[in-house]
Amino acid sequence: MTIVPRATAGPGLTRLRRAVRTRLLPWFDRHRRILPWRNNRTAYRVWISELMLQQTRVDQAEPYFRRFLKRFPSLKCLAAASQQDVLKQWEGLGYYSRARNLHKAARLIVREQHGRFPRELQSLQALPGIGAYTAAAIASLAFNKDHAVLDGNVIRVLTRLTGYPGELQRTETRRDLQAWADALLIKGDAARYNEAMMELGAMLCAPRNPRCAVCPLEGVCVARQAGDPESYPRRRPRGKVPHKVVGAAVVVNRKGEVLIAQRLDSSMLGGLWEFPGGTLEDGETMPACVARELKEELGVDIEVGERLMIVRHAYSHFTIALHVYMARLRKGRPRAIHCADYRWSTIDRLRDFPFSRADLHIVDRLKADL
Ligand code: SF4
């Protein structure tokens, strides 16, 4: 049953459907980009690419996709790998819960479903890290099931095409746009329809300076006709992005090895390695913060020396200034108290461990100073 979208200022559904069928799909057939995940399209390859493409640009994701598939060419290989190996291949892509969930889900499919990828939305969504969007993408792109996807690109295209007035942050907005996407879906040709909508959003209907003059849907687009496509999708103004000041120590022992700690799985960047440290508290000096954090995390007393560098990094919801200090052990042997594990590593071997982007700056600096 087709759910008719809630009324908006948009053009009639019939007109839009006709334009999608007669103009958008032929445009897509002519202009679609050659991308590695579009060849040999198995559920495994679609799944990896869709997860990588969340929050990541196509040009950034491409080399990661190739490397990942080379290292783990099949679901079985991925399931047999260690989490550290998977995180290492993901290093630098961010949002590491995607990699941890990918690994967990691969093991579940191999263990409980004899390595057969589920085809139905419900079974797909029961796997760790697979939400409504990824499930619809796998079901439609790999199995050509009639499900419409709704990602950032499709949301932008639909709000502009229909002149959708609701703010993106409202819960009803997603429901209404899913209804539009479902209503426009071309039954029996879901993979092509979904890819065409996403491709339009990526190639022409960009957030800034959309190329309306060459868009196949120009004639039926409300935002184009109103002359204000960039004002869609409507958004509530964002508040100020929080900023954190964080301290970390590069503790060096007599052998010249440095102390690194593995973050708890339950924490942000879980499973990755870091130079131990934490957030500055009110009234605390930076060296005192670093010493306190090392005591809490690893149970050691350290002598904090010179500041090595400050790393500035932006995450999706906050920014950090990471103050990094050289240090040496004064008392105690490290124990994993508030971390999953710890290691003494030579500077040369640091690259064997998966680190976040911010910590990789420290690794690079240490290697350069060697
Ligand atoms: S006409 Fe412009 S705003 Fe409308 S869908 Fe095409 S590129 Fe986007």
Q: Mind explaining what this structure looks like?
A:
The protein is an alpha+beta fold. It has two domains: 13-231, Orthogonal Bundle (Endonuclease III, domain 1), CATH 1.10.340.30; 243-369, Nucleoside Triphosphate Pyrophosphohydrolase, CATH 3.90.79.10. Helices cover 44% and strands 14% of the residues. The chain contains 14 helices and seven strands. It has helices at residues 13-31, 43-53, 58-71, 75-80, 83-90, 97-112, 121-125, 132-143, 152-162, 171-184, 190-203, 222-226, 286-298, 357-369, and strands spanning 243-251, 258-262, 273-274, 277-279, 301-314, 319-331, 341-345. The strands form two sheets. Strands 4-1-6-5 form a four-stranded mixed beta sheet, with helices on both faces. The protein has a three-stranded antiparallel beta sheet with strand order 3-2-7, with no helix packed on it. The longest helix has 19 residues, at 13-31. It binds iron/sulfur cluster. Iron/sulfur cluster binds next to helix 9 and helix 12.
